[in-house]
Design brief:
By secondary structure, the chain is mainly β. Helix content is about 15%, strand content about 55%. The chain is built from 5 helices and 17 strands. The chain has a 17-stranded mixed beta sheet that branches.
């Protein structure tokens, strides 16, 4: 029945029951409803509703629901302004999500938003159509139980979120768990123009996990450290921005080989030291590039580290690394 009223195949399967009336007062249509929805899907939005209830008064529509969006589990409890106009204005929303794959979500958002619902294959879970002009969220308490970006795992996020009429999502979160440490977060996403900004403040995190998953630099920078990450991207999902970091008792992968070569060079400059047992031990044990402290700045443009300044300090060897690094063509 609702599909006939909406003039498209919007809902699929499940049960929708209760009372639903549209009331026109002062040229503003309002809803009078007391409804329950069970095991229903909205294919065009890749949305599954396991259970939902909807009730109204003159000013507000109250809704509670749980289910799944793509592979993300959700639980919501919200209040919507009771006006059957667009955009729909969500006055207050408590939302909890779990199993959030950020990489997959960004890739799906970047699909062509101009496609119609009839062109979306129901078996294709990566494409969905979302018109940002239809929804405004004024105040949302947004909780993420667990999420991941590649192998970077995060969770226990309690954030504030808004979505304005121009399709701009803003998220701010205090301390939460990430990469075996903690972090603060600020995100701004322009869903209409595919413009994304991320600011992470990291403390006591595993820097190998961070560098491997954000920069594809596996086993190159390790140790526990702190960092400030400011990145932006667009529809290409190429990274731009800056990363500053400080690591205590860390290691740089290729520095171990550099140190080894320096010791070999020293032997040839002074062959007498070849008889030293200490020198022999150094030659057969290639070091791992360990340092008391490592700090650095990385500037990125279109997935290329255009400026790399990394300083490392130890009693036996200090180093300064400067250069350029292509994250795609290593």
């Amino acid at each position: 029945f609702l599909n006939v009223g909406l003039r498209q195949k919007f809902f699929k399967g499940g049960t929708i029951k209760g009372d639903l009336h549209a009331v026109f007062r002062h040229n503003v249509p309002k809803l009078t409803a007391n409804m329950q929805i069970l095991n229903t899907r909205i294919p065009s939005q890749r949305l599954r509703i396991s259970e939902a209830t909807l009730s109204t008064n003159h000013e507000e529509i109250s809704i509670k629901a749980n289910g799944g969006f793509k592979r993300i589990k959700y639980d919501i409890d919200g209040v919507i302004k009771n006006e059957l106009l667009t955009p729909v204005i969500v006055k207050k929303l408590d939302m909890t999500v779990d199993n959030v794959n950020v990489e997959r979500l960004l890739a799906s958002v970047n699909q062509d938003q101009n496609q119609t619902a009839t062109t979306i294959s129901e078996s294709d879970d990566d494409n969905f159509m979302f018109d940002t002009s239809l929804l405004v969220i004024e105040d949302c308490n947004f909780k993420v139980l667990k999420g991941f970006y590649k192998d970077l795992v995060f969770g226990d996020i309690n954030a504030k979120m808004t979505l304005d009429k121009d399709g701009i999502v803003k998220i701010q979160a205090p301390w939460f768990d990430i990469a075996e440490g903690i972090s603060t977060l600020r995100v701004q996403c322009d869903l209409k123009n595919f413009d994304y900004y991320l600011r992470l403040g990291l403390k006591n995190v595993n820097m190998d996990i961070i560098s491997t998953n954000l920069l594809n630099l596996s086993k190159e920078i390790s140790g526990k450290g702190s960092a400030l990450v400011e990145l932006n991207s667009d529809k290409s999902l190429k990274l731009n921005g800056q990363i500053k970091f400080l690591i205590d008792d860390g290691a740089i992968g290729k520095i171990g080989v550099v140190e080894y070569l320096l010791k070999v060079a020293a032997i040839f400059r002074n062959p007498i030291v070849m008889i030293s047992p200490t020198t022999f031990f150094d030659l057969v044990n290639i070091p791992e590039g360990k340092f008391d402290q490592i700090d650095g700045v990385l500037k990125l443009k279109d997935n290329v580290i255009t400026r790399m300044d990394i300083k490392s300090y130890s009693p036996t060897l200090s180093a300064l690394i400067r250069g350029r690094y292509d994250l795609e063509n290593q």
